[in-house]
Amino acid sequence: MKLIYFISLFILISIYSSVNAQLCPNCLKENESCNIDKNSLDTCESGTSCRNISNGGGYICISYLEEGEKCGPETGQCIPGKRCLEDVNGIYRCLDYSFSNVGEECTLDSDCSTYELNCIKGVCKLNATKTCLYDDGNCQYDEYCSCPSTDCYCKPIKTEGESCNTDQECLGNLDCILSICTKLKLLTIGSICRKSSECDYNNGLYCPNGTCQEFVEPKSTSCNPNSTSTNQCPEFQSCSCSDGTCYQTSVYPPQTYLFTKKDLVQCAYDNGCSVAYDFNVFSSKSCVKKNCRKLMCEFRSQTPFKGKQKGDDCGREAYFIDLLCNSSFKITQSIASLLIISFISFVLIFQN
Ligand SMILES: *[C@@H]1O[C@H](CO)[C@@H](O)[C@H](O)[C@H]1NC(C)=O
Ligand SMILES: *[C@@H]1O[C@H](CO)[C@@H](O)[C@H](O)[C@H]1NC(C)=O
Ligand SMILES: *[C@@H]1O[C@H](CO)[C@@H](O)[C@H](O)[C@H]1NC(C)=O
Ligand SMILES: *[C@@H]1O[C@H](CO)[C@@H](O)[C@H](O)[C@H]1NC(C)=O
Ligand SMILES: *[C@@H]1O[C@H](CO)[C@@H](O)[C@H](O)[C@H]1NC(C)=O
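Above are the sequence and the 2-acetamido-2-deoxy-beta-D-glucopyranose SMILES. Below is the predicted complex in structure-token form.
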């Protein structure tokens, strides 16, 4: 269940990202006209989006509006991490949103990190007409949202060694084994395994055939980015438009589990932060971002990864990652891409 926190990071990133396609994009600068057709290769450069200007000029690449600027009625005008919302004076502006947890300060309902929370007398509180509804963000940091039937309520979370009935009751990186919240030890090379998550993925191991083995990275080869054939590159790689070389664009098996590492949940807990499913990862005002920024950004750069350094996406991924991490960490755009590719399917299943 704690996995959903990580997935929400990916959802947010993926909303603003275009997955690297095999075909090369046509990068457009600010104010150039663009085509929003699905099959079009037109891609507005970072910091802009393709929008219909209301004066009849058609679709052009327009810069995002910054925080505080007036916006609306069309959506998608605000810089990622800001939303077009009514301010205290009833004027629509690009505002920060979804950053305050239960008990934290707010001025608008939209400041609160979940839909169930309302800004009541300057503090985010669970609305009396609502329940925590599967979202731990509606509970205190040391509670989880339990929904045994149609009713949901916040219950204390259990730490290592405490008795449990399900994994959900145990804090982030613990599993409920023999009714005790337990930290699982990862298996070493050659150990018998059933799934890759049991092997020491931190050291590149996975479970290909019943034993933990080292994953061998496919060799980089050259390719033709204009070709529509999808099998020019080895599995997990695709052709880069910048230099006609195959680079990793999806997660290698052991890396899958790096992203589900639950250190972030532990960091949030240690710092007294509850984490909502859909919190605004771009906002620097949330408790978890204030305390765990390093982890939120670092777990991407940890990936042993030699991806596309030059944007095959007109610099968009790099721009979003930069917004997310405030330039504190150098992260290649491709790491974000691989996150998206690997999680999008899971997210879709999860949400439907
Ligand atoms: C794009 O158009 C806007 C508004 O007309 C103008 O302020 C801006 O400087 C233009 N940008 C470029 C790169 O031409
Ligand atoms: C762009 O917006 C204008 C007015 O808002 C509308 O009349 C026009 O049909 C739109 N153009 C396209 C291509 O959607
Ligand atoms: C609780 O939610 C309902 C429905 O969304 C809303 O009408 C009501 O104003 C909320 N209560 C508070 C105190 O904000
Ligand atoms: C399968 O397991 C054997 C050891 O039993 C190992 O030598 C072999 O490399 C494994 N295959 C793969 C694809 O890792
Ligand atoms: C790919 O197509 C573009 C535009 O059609 C062309 O300029 C470029 O040289 C081609 N690249 C290769 C490697 O064929």
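The radius of gyration is 22 Å.
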